[in-house]
């Protein structure tokens, strides 16, 4: 690869520029690639719908494909609208001859209106083409057609259907949650464990953007995945970045004022509005729901008003001791990776404090008993931290919620302190202004790392932070469910 991924879109046109090859070329450029396009169909469409489709003779499709591949080394291909079985055959033959290293298939089969766009022969041919792709990106309706089952009504049903499609084709599936109801808009990769990680599913959460301007999101997501993968990202990393970028493009869509129907998204929003908000403010706000979940969970409420049962608290502390021992290793790693002496010293001091605290918890609450085995929520959290240490920025982002969420809770719960509060020492430790200052420094360091990071790296930092915050919530929920004395 030359460094700049050369990405070919094979798709139909949209003269209003929101979908098809136009969306693909904008996406490829926005994410750092060099875009090329072979036209399968000329489509007279706008933001309100499709009027007419003109399909050039298949011989001319072959001529276009060969014109590109005879001359250019192609790093990735994104395939969109293919009108009939003959066209699909031509693309399959060409793929077999040229064998591009990354092939992403967006199986455009069902119109937004729900109408089937392809005849039965073409649907069969497209199922065959799925087996030749590295990634296939169906929406819920297309997943139903490809698996021959009713349209999934819930995310779990959709994951099941995606698993089926993966099993029948051997191809990695990107399941899109755009057509689900509700405030969330998750996507997931479903495929082999070596490609997507434990359980064969890698879910990337997302908030639904309140806009009707979603025209071309499917085209844009699939070409984003092709570009990012060709640029060297793993499939899960590509999805994290693609989704962060696409969510931003949706958030800026209403400002475009293109058309009177379902308008396009703003592919170039990152050029127009370079990130001017602090990274920390962005991720803190994005974690608002998780933070509210922590404040409202039974454990934290009981900790605040002192009604928490002692055995539940002790179980939590024993887990926290296990957690802190591992956490200290990650802080020491941040110290090893730090770009300045100040930051190196800060993380080394933090590692030392975590270890001192671990020892204190052990001696205060375990009375010489064997340390507790780590509970699933503890292992899940520390596994995530270990997996997030590929770069300094990502590691700093992953360790930050442990500072910030505790300092925030400590500050909030300080008002509840009184001399006979059963958990006064816990409240004192995390409400300590020195801990708030250490947290502020960790936030400053993370913002500096985000400022120096590429957009891709920044997306990985945000994802690492988001996941750690979720692990904090699960860590607080675990004692209520698991403490053996309550079983
Ligand atoms: N309102 C929204 N807010 C946030 N993300 C969204 C929204 N709508 C769609 N997406 C995202 O856009 C991508 C495309 O999803 P969708 O399920 O809509 O595919 P599609 O139907 O193929 O798209 P298209 O509308 O282009 O045909 C997914 O990443 C999905 O999560
Ligand atoms: C050319 C083309 N491809 C895909 C879609 C789906 O958004 C569209 N509207 N037009």
TrEMBL record:
Pathway: Cofactor biosynthesis; thiamine diphosphate biosynthesis; 4-amino-2-methyl-5-diphosphomethylpyrimidine from 5-amino-1-(5-phospho-D-ribosyl)imidazole: step 3/3. It comes from the Bacteria. One of its GO terms (molecular function) is hydroxymethylpyrimidine kinase activity. Its EC number is 2.7.1.49, 2.7.4.7. Residues 14-266 form the Pyridoxamine kinase/Phosphomethylpyrimidine kinase domain. Catalyzes the phosphorylation of hydroxymethylpyrimidine phosphate (HMP-P) to HMP-PP, and of HMP to HMP-P. This is Bifunctional hydroxymethylpyrimidine kinase/phosphomethylpyrimidine kinase. It comes from Microbacterium helvum.
